[in-house]
């Protein structure tokens, strides 16, 4: 199975200058746990619900009105291609211990997102079990 056959399509990104309050509202509205961050038409990072809590809420000088995506985002982006085999993408997620992976096309444009939930709906039991154990292991 190919990644494009089971990914969430039509994922958008926001600017690093987006307030985290807006990001949290987007997450709630779309029932998602992460938002890709882009600048100058390139992905530069990711903000997860965990980033908002662990890097934002608990910081000593936290101010929700002034905290932006750039303040809490995980820098750097790992992704897979839409034509990759699902097993290859899952292996990438296992190696990086990540739960979500942006999907790009041949033009290096983000066209979707693959998550552990997607893997759970589409992968065989062995692949899913291996992925869950690796990704869920303590870092």
From TrEMBL:
Return the Pfam families for the record. Answer: CBS (PF00571)
What PROSITE patterns has UniProt attached to this entry?
Answer: CBS
Concerning SUPFAM superfamilies, the annotation shows: CBS-domain pair (SSF54631)
Domain called CBS: residue spans: 7-62, 73-129
Taking the record's annotation, the residue ranges forming a coiled coil are none
Keyword list, A-Z: CBS domain
**CDD domains listed in its UniProt record:** CBS_pair_HRP1_like (cd04622)
* UniProt-listed PANTHER family: CBS DOMAIN-CONTAINING PROTEIN, CBS DOMAIN-CONTAINING PROTEIN CBSX3, MITOCHONDRIAL
- Identification of the protein by name: Inosine-5-monophosphate dehydrogenase
- Organism expressing this protein natively: Bradyrhizobium macuxiense
């Amino acid at each position: 199975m190919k990644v494009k056959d089971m990914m969430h399509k039509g994922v958008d990104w926001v600017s690093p200058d987006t307030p985290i309050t807006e990001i949290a509202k987007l997450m709630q509205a779309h029932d998602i746990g992460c938002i890709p961050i882009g600048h100058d038409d390139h992905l530069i990072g990711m903000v997860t619900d965990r980033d908002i809590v662990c890097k934002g809420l608990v910081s000593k000088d936290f101010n929700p009105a002034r905290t932006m995506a750039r303040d809490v985002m995980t820098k750097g982006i790992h992704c897979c291609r839409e034509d990759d085999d699902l097993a290859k993408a899952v292996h990438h997620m296992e190696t990086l211990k990540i739960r979500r992976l942006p999907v790009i096309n041949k033009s290096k444009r983000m066209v979707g997102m693959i998550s552990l939930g997607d893997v759970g709906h589409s992968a065989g039991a062995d692949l899913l079990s291996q992925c869950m154990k690796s990704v869920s292991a303590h870092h």
